[in-house]
Amino acid sequence: MKQKHLRIFRIIISLLFLVFIAALFIDYREFIPASWTKWILYPQFVPSAISFITLPAALATGFLVILILTLLFGRVYCSTFCPLGTIQDVFAFFSKKFRIIKRYKFKKALDYLRYPFLGLTLVFLLSGSILILNLLDPYSTFGRIFSDLARPGVVAINNLLAAQMEKMEVYFLFRIDMGLFTWHTVFIPIFTAVLIIWLSVYFGRLYCNTICPVGTTMGLLSRLSLFRIKMDGLSCTKCGKCALVCKSNCIDIKHLKVDFSRCVACYNCIPACEYNAIKYEPAYSRKTGIAAPADKSKRDFIGKSLLLGMALTGLNRKSTAQNQGTLLPGDIPNVKQHPVSPPGSLSLKHFTDRCTACHLCVTSCPTGVLQPSLLEYGLKGIMQPHMDYAVEYCNYECTICSQVCPTGAIMPLTVEDKKLTQTGVVHLILDKCVVVTDLTACGSCSEHCPTQAVRMVPYQNGLTIPEIHTEICIGCGACEYACPVRPHTAIYVDGNPVHQVAEPPQTESLEFDAHEDFPF
Question: Of 96, 196, 326, 419, whose CB neighbour count within 10 A is largest?
Answer without folding.
Answer: 196
